Amino acid sequence: MSKRDYYQVLAVARDASEQDIKSAYRRLALKHHPDRNPGDKAAEDKFKEAAEAYAVLADADKRARYDRFGHAAVAGGGGAPGFDPTIFSEFDDIFGSIGDIFGFGGGRRRGGPQRGADLRYDLDISFEQSATGAETTIQIPRRETCETCTGSGSAPGSPPTTCPQCRGSGQLRYQQGFFTVARTCGQCRGSGRIVTKPCQTCHGEGTVEHLRKLTVKVPAGIATGQRLRLMNEGEAGANGGPPGDLYVVLNVQEHPFFQRDGNDLACEIPVNFTTLALGGEIKVPSIKKDTETLKVPEGTATGSVFRLRGKGMPDVSGRGRGDLLITVQAITPRKLTKEQRKLFEQLAAILPPQEFEPTSRDADERGIFDKVKDIFG
Ligand SMILES: [Zn+2]
Ligand SMILES: [Zn+2]
Q1: In 3-state terms, what secondary structure has residue 321?
Q2: Which ligand is nearest to the CA of 189?
Q3: What angle, rounded to 10 degrees, do the helices at 92-102 and 41-57 form?
Q4: Largest alpha-carbon pair distance within the chain?
Q5: Spatial contact of 204 and 104, defined as CB atoms under 8 Å apart
Q6: What average pLDDT does range 323-334 have in this prediction?
Q7: 85 near 99, Cβ under 8 Å?
Q8: How far is the CA of 231 from the centre of ligand 1 (A)?
Q9: Which DSSP symbol is given to 43?
């Protein structure tokens, strides 16, 4: 098999600068990248060829030898050029694939310490609990390091032995053409060790399913969809890796009376229309389980909104409280006593049904009265 000239491979001149060689290689590597050309053998060959050319031309010493003596001068054992992986380390976006193909790491390693999986727990709390904050106990099933074998998977007294197939490296290397190719060892699945007598507690897994009780502190003011992160309370890591985290995702139940909007609370209070007409004081329940007094001025229109500052939900990060917004709704008495009826009739006599002026200074309401006037001419 004849090899192409490395300058030709990268399509650069013989006196090309380091920078020219670098950008020429990057262009080719991205073009023929295995991720972009899945299953394309020709592209993979081009990708390898470019990497080989770059490995030589990017190294001043190798380039000088290549210039004088050609391919033979830079060939490593078995004709391979003897890669220095660090030459590729600056190509972040292609380095992993080069490592996978040529077997010098950089790709996904198995068998090393792995962080445990993050877990999610959905927690329902009442509206009142979100207003006051709460402490609750949850139970999560999760995999924890087996105590019997401390995670090794081997029965006590029978430590795992070195994998005979890969001699503990977790990888099998073999020569393919000019290159050394590494594959994950099938016998030990990349861990480099073989469990000969599995631990009886975890059946060789190294982890066991456990129902763990945890106390969760829910801060006051938390809202639906917000989450709490409990560090290191996720699943156990593998091969001595750290555990994952636990995310508690909150779902706050609706309140029959209050609606939440940010840190503000809104509610509707039915009020006798006489109170709205004459003005007065009304009682408003608050989320803090006490009662607030709201002064309603004379001539208040139904649907008017009043704001009680600082009577809403506490801010979850402790920055004060939101407001309470109260919408007053006029209620019409359904059944009148004799006396009430008499008084209403007197009122009706001096307050014609459709010819009074709007009491509110609200522009919208004025608009409605003007329109009604227009209809009747
Ligand atoms: Zn075990
Ligand atoms: Zn092995």
Answers
A1: strand
A2: 2
A3: 110
A4: 120
A5: no
A6: 92
A7: yes
A8: 24
A9: H
